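Predict the 3D structure for this chain.
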Amino acid sequence: AYLSRLVLPGWHDAALVRFESSLFATPPTLWLVQRQNVAVTELLSAGYLSFYLYAVVVGGLLYFGARADRARYQRMITAMAAAYVGCYVIYLLWPTEGPRYALPAATPLGGPLLDLVHLLQRGAGVHGNAFPSAHAAMGAVAVFYLWGRSQVGAVVLALLVVLMSAGAVYLQYHYASDLVAGLTAGSLAVAAVEVFARQPA
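Done. Predicted structure below.
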């Protein structure tokens, strides 16, 4: 939050808003909020919160599971770190606030799960860092590395990532573009780590 605008002053959401306006009659975050209800908000809040389990659950299975694969675990952690670094470099070079600030709309109505999301967001104290979505990047990495251990688990996780992504847009933390860019960042990090891991020592 303190570093966001050291390189480039101001917020630069306008380009994302223009891009999404060229694709959609109404930006996805506004379209979703216009159709809000408490049950949908709680479901998407649960999806958004699932993000905090990706590294712990997949990492735990790879490191401690019955078919532990610690080399795969190490590659997953390396890919997650690389994806985070890539996302944060972009945050510094092109700061964006996210639709909650750039496209103000009615705050979704919800219950205890939405309250928990707000509590975590306030605790993090982060303003901005919307493009690309590090949440989506971590989701892509976790799904890839779980696939090699449990394809059924990876499909379930992929569905959670979709739910998390919809929640991130619905709760106005991310533009749809952020999620596509985040999935791309995560995929590129995985590709780089896997290529490097196959190089002869």
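The chain has a mean pLDDT of 88.
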